[in-house]
Amino acid sequence: MPSTLGAMGAQPEQPPTGWRSVGSWLAGRSLRQLVVGAAALALLVSAPFGGWETAAPLPVVTYPAGQSQDLGPLELRLTRVTENPNPSSAFGASEVGTYVLVRAIVRVPGDRMVDVGVLQDSVRLHGVGGLVAEPRSLVSSRVVPDEQAKPTIFHTADSTVLNGLGPGLSYEVAFVFEHVGTAFPDQVTVVSYSHIWRESFIDRQFGWRDPTKHGESTFVVQHGSGPPGATPGPTP
Amino acid sequence: MSTPTPDDTRAPGSLRRLGQVVLVVATLALGKAAVTQLPGAAHAERPFVVSGAFGDPVSLRTGTVRLVRVTGATTIDTGLELADSPGRWLVLTYEFTPSSSTESVSGVSVRSGDRRWEAGRSRNTNDCRPVPAGVTTTCVAVLEVPAEDLPGAVLELTPVRERTGLDSVAQIELGLDEATVQSWDKTEVRVPTAHLGAELEAGR
After folding, report:
1. pLDDT at B8
2. Which parts of chain A have pLDDT scores under 70?
3. A31 burial class (0-12, 13-18, 19+ CB within 10 angstroms)?
4. Is A158's Cβ below 8 Å from some Cβ in B?
5. Do A155 and B145 make contact, defined as CB atoms within 8 angstroms?
6. Which residues in A165-179 are b (16+ Cβ under 10 Å) and which e?
7. pLDDT in tens, chain B (204 residues)
8. Dist. CA B132–CA A94, nearest whole Å
9. Where are the beta strands (DSSP E) in chain A?
10. Which of A111, A112, A169 faces B144 most closely, judged by CB atoms?
11. What global pTM score does this model have?
């Protein structure tokens, strides 16, 4: 007698329907196909909003000397640029070449203090070459691209280092860069960067972030050769 | 009696799935609405403010503070250098006595309206060394503040420097007026040294 077990126990497998069929189809794809497919889908969805095209940079404003610039955390007025291998007896002669001093007046218009990192990232020299990562560094005087060379900020009235600014106070400062070798150009471009106040994606803390090129000013460099006096005093 | 057709059996299933989706979306919306009704961190974690006046002992979580001297100038002599301020240097001397363990006061700031200046940032300093419970130490804080912000300004002392949420804050009126602030123009003051024990020459 023929067995009926096969006909009664094993149901014929039904083809998956709906979402299951999609899942089953995806499970049959290779990892490479899945990645390429996901990227193509993301591109398709984002296409109406410009796709993955890089956002157009904000226009950079040209500022004459002395004009106020609103950088977000700071109001900045660039006044002049000097170069001097030994500008102040308060911080000694350069051991690698010369110092470049971008003179400015800065003020914090908001309610909170602004830290040194924001100050340092607000001003850069462009088109110079030979700038060290940070002036008077005890660790290294390695030359970096101009955009990466950070200044030390001095209060010119007393040559003390400013590691931040309080709200409402207006300081005459020098953004001091250090340059390898004493042959320095007669003209430089000073670029200012603005910041925005936003929450960090990592620690959810608010702060001034995302330095963005805001303005540029061209200065004729005033060359100097030594400190104004033997005793510590105002930066020249 | 009629037998359900395949179409009849699919319709309730689709409706059930639609109902599930609606239920999930409604639950998410309800959750979101509930979250927006909860107090934010700024409110829920607000500090415990204890107000006081110049010379009064004010209790913090970690001990008692007392503001004993307020002076100011446009130039300070730190012993290492002279520093000029475009505003005024505020030199504050306060005593601290820990209550139960070795502590110091780390958070020092001056508030005026919405503006705030903190010690430990920029050129502002706070010299306050940890001392054992029951021992009084005299601490010195130096902050630069615009002259126009000093009348009505308030000193805030906290056990820790950052994140004062859920912690105690001593809020002490500095009691400065315009005439006092004006009298500090073009003057120089030597920053006193923090020391163990109470301040002998308290006063403004």
Report:
1. 53
2. 1-16, 137-140, 226-236
3. exposed
4. yes
5. no
6. bbbbbbbbbbbbbbb
7. 455 555 555 556 777 888 898 999 999 999 989 888 888 777 888 889 999 999 999 999 999 999 999 999 999 999 988 999 999 999 999 999 999 999 999 999 999 999 999 999 989 999 999 999 999 999 999 999 999 999 999 999 999 987 667 899 999 999 999 999 999 999 999 999 999 999 876 566
8. 46
9. 61-62, 68-70, 75-84, 97-107, 114-115, 123-126, 152-155, 160-161, 164-165, 170-180, 187-199, 206-223
10. A169
11. 0.78
| B122 contacts in chain A (CB < 8 Å) | 113, 162-166
Asked if A109 is an interface residue toward chain B (Cβ–Cβ < 8 A), one would say: no
In this complex, do B115 and A155 lie within 8 Å of one another by their Cβ atoms? no
> Would you call B25 helix, strand, or coil by DSSP?
helix
Say how many CA atoms lie within 13 Å of A192 toward its Cβ: 29
Residue with tokens 């690698």: A96
- Token pair in block for residue A209: 């972030």
Measured between alpha carbons, how far is residue A233 from residues A88, A89, A104, A226, B204 in Å?
Answer: 7, 8, 18, 13, 31
Question: Is A68 at the interface with chain B, CB within 8 A?
Answer: no
Q: In a mutagenesis test of the B interface, which of A77, A152, A158, A173 is the best target, namely the one with the most B β-carbons within 10 Å?
A: A158
Query: Cα torsion for A18, A20, A25, A26, to the nearest 10°?
Result: 120
Token pair of A164 as six digits: 């931040």
Amino acid at B84: D
Are the C-beta atoms of B104 and B158 separated by less than 8 Å? no
DSSP label of B162: S
Query: By the 8 A CB rule, do A219 and A62 touch?
Result: no
Asked if B116 and A170 come within 8 Å (Cβ–Cβ), the reply is no
